[in-house]
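Morning F.,

Quick status update on the modeling queue. The single chain you submitted on Monday has been processed. Sequence for confirmation:
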Amino acid sequence: MLDALLIDEHRKVLDALHQLEETQLKILFVTDREGRLVGTLTDGDIRRWILGGGNLGGEMGDVCNRTPCVVHGDQAHEVLKNIMRSRQVTSVPVLDDDGRVNKVVFWEDLFTDDHPEAAEHEPLGVPVVVMAGGKGTRLAPFTSVLPKPLIPVGDRTAIQVILDSFAECGVDEFYLSVNYKSKLIQAYFEELSPDYRLHYVLEDEPLGTGGGLHVLSGVLDGDLIVTNCDVIIKADYRAILDHHRREKNDITMVVSLRNYDIPYGICDIVDNGQLCAMREKPSYNFLVNTGLYVLSSSILGMIPCQQFYHLTDLIDDVRQKGGRVGVFPISDTAWMDTGEWQQYCETMARLA
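C-alpha cells below.
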C-alpha cells in the first residue's frame, strides 16, 4: 500500500497522473533517490502546473508541494487529529529519523465522520445535456441500424454508461438532444425505466453539437453540463464544477493531456530546401478537447435559433464578447472515445 503512494522526484507529470488514478487516494508522496520525502503531490498541483504553462515532461520535484504537513515518529491519535484539523489536511506522512516515509495516516483512520471533503459527495445539483442527435457515420454499418447512443459498451449502451456515471454523482435530470433514429432512443429508455428524469430536445434537422441547446435558453438557470454522446469521462465531476465556478468561467472545457512521441528524426528546412535543424525523435504534448463542457446558462441565448451551430462556435462567440473560457485537464486514461472504430475498439479493450 505504501509503495503505491510513493513516487520518485524525477518521474514525469503523466506518470503521476496515472498513479493517482490507480491509487484513487488523491495524493502521492514525492521522494528522492534515498527515499527521503521531498514533498506531496495532488491532482490540484498537477492542474496548476499544466494551466500555468508546464508540460507533461515536468518532473515531480518541480511540481510538488515542498512544504507539506508531516510528523516525525509515532504520535498520539489526538495529536494527529489536532494537526489534521488545524492544517485542514486529510493525510499526514509519518517520517523516520532519516526523513523517509514510514507510513501515512489518513483522515478515515482517525475520524468516523465530519470528513473535510464531505461536500464532494453531495449531489452535483446541475442538469446534464447529452448531444445525441448525430448520425454516427464513422461507426457504420452499426449506425445504419442503431443510433450512435445505443452502440453497446460492455453490457450497456454508450449513453447509459454516460448517464449512469452522472447519476452516481446525484444528477437526476437529463436532457437528450436527439434527431437521428430518435424514436429508438426514446423506446430504449421507456423500456429501461430509469430512476432519473429524462427530457427530450427534438431536432427537426441536425443542428450540430450546439444548435439544439438554444431551446433551453430561459428554461435552465445556473450551470449545466454538456457532453457528447460518444465520450466516457472517468473524472471528478465535482472538482470540474468547482473549478468552473471558482474561475467564474462562462464555459469550461474538459481537456485530455496527450503525449505523442515521433519515432523518427524530424527535419526543419528553409525556403531553398536547405536543412536548418534536425530533432531526433521529438515528443509533443497537447491538450485535447474531450467533448465535455460546463456552461453557464446565461450564454445559451447567444446560440442562434434553428441553425447549424457547434459548441466550438459558441466558444468563439463567447471569447469574442470578452467572456471567460477555461479548461480543466484530465489524464489521457480518464477519457474514452467511442465515436470512431479504432477508439471504440480501444475503449472496449480497456473495459474488458
